[in-house]
Write a structure and sequence with these properties.
By secondary structure, the protein is an alpha/beta fold. Helices cover 18% and strands 37% of the residues. The radius of gyration is 15 Å and the shape is globular.
Length: 115
């Protein structure tokens, strides 16, 4: 089997609210919108997909969107200034980690490499 990367996606309950969060709060660039919204995070395609039903939002899976930042404390302060609850940065073996959630509860991790 030959496979190529397509995208990462999150199910959302309200597409307009999700687009606003990812563009206004996180600064992602909206590429296109039809049934789904396509955003660019660097060279990665990230899609917001309307949930087929509420069960899709109760996943409890282990998927996360991880974003590398140069200064995690500044990133956390900026998010908090926008009203986004964000965990305090936690020291890990090779960096600092913080997490937050989008309006549908999808986890987003911020990562600052220290090594």
């Amino acid at each position: 089997m030959q496979a190529d990367f397509d995208c990462i996606f999150y199910y959302v309950s309200d597409l307009d609210r999700a687009i606003q969060f990812y563009t206004d709060v996180l600064g992602f660039k909206l590429h296109s919108r039809d049934v789904v919204a396509r955003l660019h995070v660097g060279n990665v395609l990230f899609e917001l997909v309307p949930a087929p039903d509420s069960r899709a939002l109760q996943g409890g899976g282990n998927g996360r969107l991880c974003l590398r930042v140069d200064d995690i404390r500044a990133a956390v302060a900026e998010l908090r200034s926008k009203g986004v609850p964000t965990e305090n940065p936690e020291s890990k073996s090779n960096g600092l980690l913080s997490s937050l959630h989008d309006p549908d509860g999808n986890e987003i991790c911020l990562w600052e490499y220290t090594s």
